[in-house]
Design goal:
The complex is a heterotrimer of chains A (about 170), B (about 600) and C (about 110). Chain B has about 600 residues and is mostly helical. Chain B has helices at about 5-25, 30-50, 80-105, 110-130, 135-150, 160-190, 195-200, 200-205, 210-225, 235-240, 245-255, 255-265, 265-270, 275-295, 300-320, 325-355, 370-385, 390-405, 410-435, 440-445, 450-465, 470-475, 490-505, 520, 525-575, 580-600, and strands spanning about 60-65, 70-75. The termini of chain B are far apart. Chain C is built from three helices and no strands. Classes of the chains: A mainly alpha (about 170), B mainly alpha (about 600), C mainly alpha (about 110).
Chain lengths: ~170, ~600, ~110
């Protein structure tokens, strides 16, 4: 059962990701990306990382992709025209990607420790929001505060960058 | 005043004097002369005092370069019998010549420059005498060469003087190249530069005879240059372009004798190598004969004396080669310093009296006009020619005795040379002082002032007595060989009489030279040979090097890498295409490549 | 039961799909989406490692999940700023075609 769920969600995620790459219209690509993120959140849940899964849907699929769609609508993009497709670029890109995948699978097969199955948790009903919270606030408090400042800076930067010249 | 500080004072007083003259001499002529003569006199006084002290030891050196106990180069002073005698010679003759210069240079220009150069020379020469290691001796060797360059080129506005000073330095440098190689040989073979330790190592070195012989011959090259042996003798006659006191001090008595002194210093080492001694004897013997031949046909009063100096130096060098100790050669050095210096100073007196005329065929009948000069020059000539009871006879005699025993050919050659010496010495006397005046200057010549004739008298005394056995034994220990042919002494007397008589007959009343041998007059064409060599061989080499510099170095080594680098840069510029995706592609390809590299280990 | 290798393979494939979006598409927004895909792939592998390497008490290693949290936050900030830049670029050049952005060409 677990294996089947894993593969269903994985295949869904990958298919939608491929959709991102291959659709002509940016809006279509964005919607595929949203679906891909939802499937990814499901994968997180299979890994007992509930908090992260929820955060993924909230932040990524909810906020980031909405922002993307706003920008697409703002820029009023049309579908990409068919400029002359450079075969050499596609071949080169394909080679790089293929090389990476080949290297990855080689590594994954050659390390026996990676073939282990999921070990059981000592406490299956773990409250992982609390656990992540405790870790975050006890051991990573300073990075947390800095992240806050980072978000502030990003906000200011965005405001500045999108200002039109005042006449 | 102790025996430890006296050598340092002797050494450094002339240097201080030279520095002071350099700074203040141009404002006061008497000051420069006074400083120079004062430093020489102090040196002379202390040298005589030091001579009569008990045998000195080596003074503790001051380390100039100190890299740890294995490698130290120091300024150290050796005060033993050999250096004490040489100190006497150098400082006493220096004092006498400096005093003479007061009169000679009175009307010349560059007065303070001259005395500064003389003081510097005295410092350098004392450094050679007192040196206790090879490196220090080499440094002062070169310093003496520099002083000689400065002094020969005193009249630097004259092209011949400038050329002569350059020639002196360059030819000396050729000899010094071999000298330096020899020093390095000995240093690497024994690990030390101190004379005392090298000599202590001599028995071990003699186990490798070829190495020792090569090292000794290379060191001898320094003597060949400095003491004007064949074939590097060409600079000495031309060095007569300097003022006459310089010629007498440097190029007769002291500087040229430094080569012989150096050989005497390392004599125990040389004695281990028969091959080296043989080379030294042959070079000395051939030099003395060839120079005597050349002297018979010279017409400039100073050049005759210059070739005579070369010939006598050949005797000294041969003396090093044939005798069992160095005292034999040093004895001749001692007497030669006295009478040759005397001869040069007399020549200077004649030149001043003749208003700077130096050709002997324009002089004549100066006997009555310059009596003091005539007398002292006669004493000097008798000493040079080897007349009995004069100093030169005793010192030359002992060398010839040993030469006849050890190298018979060279011995009889030097006997013939003795005859030639008498011949040219009296040719000089008869042409200059006897006969009839041959020019206006000669008719109106006058005696030189006392400041110049007093030194002549002072030098005439040792020229006469320095050879006598009583005097000899104060300074040297001379051994005679046991089995020399007893016919030698009569033959030597006969040579003296033949030479003097021949000169008398030919030159008593001659108006011009009755014999003319171009070979000798042109100095055996050696100068011409050097000129040809330099023009054809060295200049050809130089132009080959210039070609190689232009085409090989400039083109291949400089241009090619620069153009290659430029080409690389040109090619790499095309990677800046401005296409972001292309950059991303290269980036990704690089990462994947790196991944493969890491995974394949 | 899925193994760690399975999760990592999926993560790797997602990453390479994101990489191909960056390399092959010429619309700058799509390229940006590919970047998001790549970040998410690394998030997946981090969470997988967190779950599979249990600490001494048998609980997952939450440090990795904290890191994922931070990555998501930073990615959000980065998207905001990046889109602002794209908007500014569009206003200057009136195009989102990446090949038209070649002013730094030699």
């Amino acid at each position: 059962m677990q294996l089947a769920l894993f593969w269903i969600f994985s295949i869904l995620m990958l298919l939608f990701a491929l959709g991102v790459v291959f659709f002509r219209s940016p809006v279509n690509s964005a919607m595929c990306l949203v679906m891909s993120f939802v499937a990814l959140a499901a994968l997180f849940v299979t890994l007992d990382a509930y908090f992260i899964g929820v955060v993924q849907v909230l932040v990524y699929a909810g906020a980031v992709m909405v922002l993307f769609l706003f920008i697409i609508m703002l820029l009023d993009l049309r579908s990409e025209e068919n400029r002359r497709v450079k075969i050499s670029a596609w071949v080169g890109g394909g080679l790089v990607v293929g090389g990476f995948v080949a290297a990855l699978s080689h590594v994954l097969q050659s390390i026996p420790k990676l073939q282990a199955i999921k070990p059981d948790l000592s406490n299956p009903a773990v409250n992982d929001v609390a656990a992540v919270g405790v870790t975050l606030f006890r051991f990573f408090n300073l990075p947390l505060q800095i992240i806050g400042v980072l978000l502030l800076v990003a906000t200011i930067g965005v405001v500045l960058l999108s200002k039109k010249e005042l006449k | 005043m102790s025996t430890l500080t006296a050598p340092w004072i002797i050494l450094f007083t002339p240097l201080v004097a030279a520095a002071l003259i350099l700074l203040f001499g141009r404002y006061s002529k008497p000051l420069s002369a006074g400083l120079a003569i004062g430093s020489a006199a102090t040196g002379a006084f202390l040298s005589w005092w030091l001579f009569f002290q008990p045998l000195g030891t080596e003074v503790a050196p001051w380390y100039w370069m100190d890299f740890g106990p294995e490698f130290q180069i120091g300024i150290g002073l050796t005060v033993d019998r050999l250096s004490k005698v040489m100190l006497l010679v150098v400082t006493t003759i220096a004092t006498i010549v400096f005093t003479y210069s007061l009169g000679y240079m009175k009307t010349e220009e560059g007065y303070w420059r001259y005395f500064a150069g003389l003081a510097l020379f005295l410092f350098s020469m004392l450094g050679i005498v007192l040196a206790d290691n090879f490196v220090m001796m080499f440094i002062f060797w070169e310093l003496v060469g520099v002083s000689s360059y400065i002094l020969i080129g005193h009249y630097y506005t004259k092209a011949s003087a400038a050329d002569a000073s350059k020639q002196a330095f360059v030819v000396n440098r050729v000899g010094d190249f071999g000298f330096l190689l020899g020093i390095l040989f000995l240093w690497s073979a024994t690990g030390t530069i101190l004379f005392s330790q090298i000599i202590a190592n001599a028995p071990y070195l003699s186990e490798q005879p070829i190495l020792l012989a090569v090292a000794c011959v290379l060191v001898f090259c320094g003597t060949v240059g400095k003491s004007a042996q064949l074939p590097l003798h060409v600079w000495l006659p031309n060095s007569m372009e300097g003022p006459t006191p310089v010629s007498s001090l440097l190029h007769a008595a002291t500087m040229v004798a430094a080569g012989v002194y150096m050989l005497a210093r390392i004599f125990p080492l040389l004695a281990e190598s028969l091959l080296a001694l043989g080379v030294i004897s042959w070079v000395g013997g051939l030099t003395c004969f060839a120079a005597a031949l050349m002297a018979t046909q010279q017409n400039d009063i100073k050049r005759i004396l210059a070739y005579s100096t070369i010939s006598q130096l050949g005797y000294m060098v041969m003396g090093i080669g044939v005798a069992p100790t160095s005292d034999v050669a040093m004895f001749h050095l001692f007497t030669h310093a006295c009478f040759k210096c005397l001869l040069f100073l007399c020549a200077g007196s004649v030149i001043i009296g003749m208003h700077h005329e130096q050709d002997i065929w324009k002089m004549g009948a100066l006997k009555n006009k310059m009596p003091m000069t005539f007398l002292t020059m006669l004493v000097g000539a008798l000493a040079l020619a080897g007349c009995v009871f004069f100093s030169g006879y005793y010192s030359k005699d002992i060398i010839i005795e040993w030469a006849v025993v050890r190298h018979p050919f060279l011995g009889w050659l030097s006997v013939a040379t003795a005859g030639l010496t008498a011949f040219y010495a009296f040719r000089l006397i008869f042409v200059v002082f006897l006969g009839k005046p041959r020019s206006e200057h000669a008719k109106h010549a006058g005696e030189s002032p006392l400041v110049m004739t007093l030194p002549l008298l002072l030098l005439a005394i040792p020229s006469f007595i320095a050879g006598w056995p009583v005097v000899q034994n104060v300074f040297f220990t001379i051994e005679h060989p046991e089995d020399y042919p007893h016919i030698l002494h009569p033959i030597l007397y006969a040579m003296f009489i033949l030479g003097t008589g021949g000169a008398y007959l030919l030159y008593r009343n001659a108006e011009k030279d009755p014999i003319s041998i171009p070979l000798f007059a042109n100095r055996l064409y050696i100068d011409a040979a050097y000129g040809w060599f330099i023009k054809n061989v060295q200049d050809a080499g130089a132009s080959a090097l210039a070609w190689s510099d232009r085409w090989v170095v400039d083109l291949l080594i400089v241009q090619v890498p620069s153009k290659v680098t430029w080409a690389f840069g040109f090619v790499l510029r095309f990677l800046q295409i401005g296409n972001i995706q292309a950059y991303a592609f290269f980036f990704g390809a690089g990462v994947v490549g790196l991944l493969y590299l890491l995974l394949s280990r | 039961m899925p193994t760690l290798a399975n999760y990592l393979l999926v993560s790797g494939l997602l990453f390479s799909i994101g990489l191909s979006a960056v390399l092959l598409r010429r619309n700058i927004l799509i390229i940006f989406m590919g970047l998001e895909l790549m970040l998410s792939a690394s998030n997946l592998s981090l969470v997988a490692f967190s779950r599979f390497h249990l600490d001494l008490e048998g609980m997952p290693n939450y440090n990795a999940q904290v890191l994922v949290f931070f990555i998501i936050t930073v990615a959000a900030a980065e998207v905001a700023v990046g889109l602002a830049i794209i908007v500014a670029l569009y206003r200057a050049k009136q195009t989102t075609h990446v090949e038209d952005l070649n002013s730094l060409k030699f």
